[in-house]
Amino acid sequence: MTPPVHPDLSHWYHAFDESTLTPGALSSAECAELFELFSDAGLVRSAMSAEMADGFLTACAVGPVDVPVPAWMAAVFGQPQLPVCADTARQERLLQLLLRRYRHVQASTANPPTSADPHTLFLPLQATVDEARRVSPYRCNAQGVREGDWELKDWAEGFRRAMLGGGHWQPMLGNQDAWPLISPIVLFQSGYNPDKPELQIDQRPEMRSMLVRCIYEMRQWWRAYALAQSRPAANPAPATPRRDQPKVGRNDPCPCGSGQKYKKCCGAH
Known about the structure:
By secondary structure, this protein is mainly alpha-helical. The protein has helices at residues 9-15, 28-37, 50-62, 69-77, 88-108, 153-164, 170-173, 179-190, 206-230.
């Protein structure tokens, strides 16, 4: 018996009319719905959580390359083909909400945060931390890994996965001047700063604001980088003339064959 052929996510995306998406940020109710849909029992075990998926698609939206929608969706759901949910209606709603969130991240980070209002400002989507799993002050195990859960743990992990995939982020990762933009991602992913053990990120709400600011600055950094790469080298140094013959000294025999010194023959003109 021939196994059924499942369409891949690119078929869904190319057939979908984006003009039907409601513009703007997801409402509080829609965010709650998105998190509920990510708990669907039909999703494969390798699928990301809603919070991790938001971090992953944010990195795709502000990063150096235009990641095709089906490609980042395949990474989020842990599979490139449909169905991702057993229920067709729930699947359609999940894909639409996720795509709308992605478009909002693209649009909201395109301009400086100073020009944003509460409806256009980018903010990461995060799950509520189960207080039973929160360890505060933080504590690390023997391997130096923080125990328990904390705010934006999965979000930062999703961003990190996108950032380290494919090697496209290397110009930023290899530039020490850009490391302050990356450090908030590392901080929330690890959950603590080993250089400042007294820093409790769970008790410092300004750390979240710092993360948001760095996301905006990352988008601008990559824009400036792309612009610099597209420009030709300015005022290239002129090529040094090359001599095919050795230089003739003033007291050397003139190369014209007259038998006189160069300074009294051709060199005198």
